[in-house]
Amino acid sequence: MADHRTAMLEKLADLDAEHAKAVAGGGEKYAGRHHARGKLLPRERIELLVDEGSAFLELSPLAGWGSDFTVGASVVTGIGVVEGVECLITANDPTVKGGASNPWTVRKIFRAAQIAEENGLPTISLVESGGADLPTQKEIFIPGGKLFRDLTRASARKEPTIALVFGNSTAGGAYVPGMSDYTVMVKEQAKVFLGGPPLVKMATGEESDDESLGGAEMHARTSGLADYLAEDELDAIRIGRRIVARLNWQKATAAPSAYAEPDEDPDSLLDLIPADLKEPFDPREVIRRLCDGVSPTNGAVFDEFKPLYGTSLVTGWAKLHGRPIGILANAQGVLFSEEAQKATQFVQLANQTDTPLLFLHNTTGYMVGKEYEQGGIIKHGAMMINAISNSTVPHLTVIMGASYGAGNYGMNGRAYDPRFLFTWPSAKSAVMGPAQLAGVLSIVARAAAEGRGQEYDEEADAGMRAFIEASVEEQSLPFFLSGMLYDDGVIDPRDTRTVLGICLSVIENKPIVGTDRFGVFRP
């Protein structure tokens, strides 16, 4: 519909504006100063590092949105293909406070490290950081040590770690090249030391300069910290690519040779999603635009499982970029006992056949009420969450619309560790809808007043409800949630097929093995 498309395009324009803030980093002044020193910006370095013509899937670009820190959290993270190898790439943004790490930087890098570990990816760190943002050190210092632990554990798992050092790598930042398997430093630019000349002067009284204390040439010739000395940034990137080319990297699963494009144009997704989340839409139409179309080898686009039972949850089998997937998609919003039992069986079947699962959210949660409580909605919902929690095949999640209450849990929300989770600009997530939450608080307050024998203030109640509704509405919006790192990015619905295709390829770096072990299913 035209009004659906118009509303979504407006949301996408807002998304572009927020992404532009992350790309701008510290702004034109500091970007210009960086270029004037003959240095590249972080995304420019990444563009030269990854294979020409390949995609770079940026992760958590809105980290820190709504906080006092620059959108993007002074670091770029994502997955790119280097010499044919999918790698987790992190790049400090030195235009934002010299690349110093703030609390959101740390959380963003932790999430990137988790993705590398779960999917068995090599890590490439493009380093230029002044260390911790000192005014917020109390939030960084103690948890920040996990960053270095993650690097050494990755090495122990035989997942190579590579550091390309382009500028300052000070204090805790010095441990990134120190704990990486391979370290490349740019001549006359890289400076790696635990304490710079001023700190050394304060601590020991020793006079020193940057080059003798931590310059690239010193580390290449004297300390041995640098494995390679690059002439300039382009040379460092060239060396980094050659290191990856020599890793002898093999994926666990061979890529499919061919696949059919969707039968329906993904562009028409913008016509499907209503601006009002109370208005239902058919997730089968979304599936037709995400998954491979009919082909001689593929057969039907979507083989629906249990189509006549538990009809507010659609389940079935499909292929996406030639790779088999199982899909669970909310149809009419509410999850009843039948839907929960259907989902539980479907998750078990996916684990039996080692098939990854895709969750498409548009749910207001599990049904409430006396009839449903007596019918066992709690135990059936718990059964579904049990299956999701203990499933070992990779899970991918896309929040298309509403994702409220325990429905967020049952549909594999962030707390249930999907390999990747992306959000559409139309999405909202909260414990319940704004009006419902405000109404519940109003009922509780009214009952409390009656219990005290007091007259209830209706005017104050109306103000309270309006304030709560506005607050919950703001806090359930995708930019806010993405800023909190509750997803891996807000994406254009038209890009969903491509994004999921990259994710499905990435998960193939490790064997896909389902489980037959679940918690106790309450009868």
From TrEMBL:
One Pfam family per UniProt: Carboxyl_trans
Domain CoA carboxyltransferase C-terminal: 265-523
Entry-linked SUPFAM superfamilies: ClpP/crotonase
Domain CoA carboxyltransferase N-terminal: 8-259
InterPro entries reported for this sequence: AcCoA_carboxyl_beta, ClpP/crotonase-like_dom_sf, COA_CT_C, COA_CT_N, MCCB/AccD1-like
Annotated protein name in UniProt: Acyl-CoA carboxylase subunit beta
Naturally occurring in which organism (per UniProt): Nocardioides mangrovi
